[in-house]
Amino acid sequence: GNASGPLDLTFDGDDNTQWALFLVKSSALNTHQVEKIPLDPVTQSAMVEIPDLASWYTVAMVAVNLSEFGGAASYTYSLTAPSPYAVSSTVLTDTLVYSGATRQFAYQVTNPSTVGDVYDVYGWDDSGWVATDTTDIFLSPGESKIVYIPVTPPVGTPLGDRSDLHFRADSRSDSLVFDEQVTYAVTVVQHGDVNLDGAVDVADLTALISHLFVDFAPLTVPEAGNVNCVGTVDVADLTGLIDWLFVNFTPSPCNPF
Question: Which architecture, in CATH terms, is 88-188?
């Protein structure tokens, strides 16, 4: 025939009748290959894929009523051409984020099909942490690409807050082809972010100096001032923050990212 790719055949015979089902594949006018299709003994049904339909001259289905003394019986069948398009995806980033800071979540999209396609890639969540932009990418057969989707809990988001994240890739060629992954993000302490604005900068140095030497006001999140991750907040943490900002630029060793 003129169709290309595989074809899915579904057969459903009357349950009270015994059936036999055959596929007759012809490569030429008088050259045939007969294949018996096993049926479910209870439902008298079957699903079978006919691969590479275009490689055959003709393909015929033959249904035989084997009930010797039964009357006429009915059956139904359908033919479906599967979409040649496909997509799969996975989230590569862990679940940790900082309040007030943006983290780029790596979302890998793969085209497992045999044809190239363009995909619309986007994300969302119920808390408004995920940017709503859509990125379109072209993938050749078998190709993968990583799309980075920014996730930003607002400044002031309490530690331990969680938001479920949805990342999705839609085929532009077939609206029924998509893949969605669900993960979550949870806010954790960023050591060094003393004022909890999402960034580690001079304002945090000023806040730590004030805490240690000026007004001695307690830190909202004491662990944020524990830059060296040892004991309580003290001068060693101040030294570590100065090194981070101005000397060796090495961040706190206990920050997860």
Answer: Sandwich (2.60)
